Amino acid sequence: MTLKQITATLIGFFFHLILTKNYKTKLIKSFNPEFKLGLIEKFFFEFYFYYFINIIYLKETDPDKRFNYQKICLGGFSDGLFWAKQEDTGFNFFKTEKFSKIYNIIKQINDNTKQKILVIQVGSSTGREIAYFAKKFSNIQCLGIDIYKSIIKWSSEKYSYNNLKYIHLEGHQLDKIFIENKNKKIIIFSEGSIEFMQPEHLEILFKKIQYYRNIRIILSEGYYKKKNNKLPAIYEKSFYNGGLHFTHDYEYYAKKIGLRVIEFSINSDENFCFFYAGDNS
After folding, report:
1. Which bin fits 125, alpha (ψ -120 to 50), beta or left (φ > 0)?
2. Crossing angle between the packed helical segments 128-136 and 97-111, to the nearest 10 degrees
3. Mean pLDDT in each 10-residue stretch from start to end of the chain (281 residues)?
C-alpha cells in the first residue's frame, strides 16, 4: 500500500469507529449521485467509502452479504429508481452495435425454431429493452428481472404487453423460471448488469444453466482487460474494477461447466465484451 492509501484507510477506520450505523449507511448510499452532499459530508464520504470498499466490502467472504452491501450503495435513497430514470432519458441504446448484436441473435433464433421461446433480461432496469422485444416479437414470452422492487413496479406500470412480465428476482435465482419453462427455448441476455453480479453468484447461475437444454446466454458487459494483471481476482476469474462492478471472465465460467462458447470478443478501447454461449441444440 502507498502512503496515501494507508492514510485513507486509517482515516476511514477512525470514521468507522466514531460514526453511527445510520450515518455510515447514509454515506454509502451517497455513492448514488441522486443525493447532494455538503462539504463536510463529502469529506466523510471520501475516506469512509474508501475504507468501506477495501476493508469491508471486498474482504467479505459471504457473497450474499457482499451483494447486500452493493445493493445499498447502488440503490441509494430511491431503491434504485434514480438510475433507471436516468437511463430512460437521452441515450438511445437501440441504435448501438451492442443492441443490434443481441437483437440479431434473438431474431435468428426466433426465425429458425418452431419451439416456444422465453427471453429473460437480467437487470431490466428501465424495462424498455425487454419491452422492445415483447413489442417486436408478439410470439415470444418476455421477462424482465431486477433486484429492486421499486424498479419492477415502475417498469410494470410503464410497459404493458400480453407477452411481457417483470418480477423481483436476483440473477442467480433463475432455476425456478427454468423449471417452469423447461419445454421452451430460453434466451438470457444482459446489457451492463451481470458485470455487477457477485462472482460466486455468477458461477451459481452458470451451474444452473448446465442442467437445462435449450438455453442461450448473451452478454454485453463492461470488461477492463488492462486491469486484470494489476488487480487480484476476488474469486476465480473475476476482478474488481471499482464502481461496484467486476470484470468477469465469462468464457472461463462457461467452459468450466461445459457450455459451448459461440462468441467471446473483447473491445479493449471501449472496455466492454460481447459473450454468447449455449448448449449444442
Report:
1. left
2. 40
3. 92 97 95 86 96 95 96 94 80 78 96 96 95 97 97 96 98 95 96 96 94 92 72 78 93 94 93 89 55
**Residue 116 DSSP SS3:** coil
Q: Output the pLDDT for position 226.
A: 64
Amino acid type, 230:
K
The candidate with the shortest Cα–Cα distance to 133, out of 166, 108, 164, is 164
Q: Which residue has the cell 429508481?
A: 81
Cell of 190: 444482459
Q: What is the pTM of this model?
A: 0.93
Is the backbone of residue 136 left (phi > 0), alpha (psi -120 to 50) or beta?
alpha
- Cα dist. 257→23, 70, 175, 205, 252 in Å? 43, 27, 16, 11, 9
Nearest to 261 by CA among 198, 214, 216: 216
Lookup: cell for 143: 421477462
Q: What is the tens place of the pLDDT at every residue in 216-237?
A: 999 999 998 765 545 556 778 8
Residue type for position 45: F
Rounded Cα–Cα distance for residues 207 and 259 (Å): 10
Residue ranges with strand state E in the chain:
117-122, 141-146, 164-168, 185-191, 215-222, 233-235, 238-240, 246-248, 260-267, 272-278
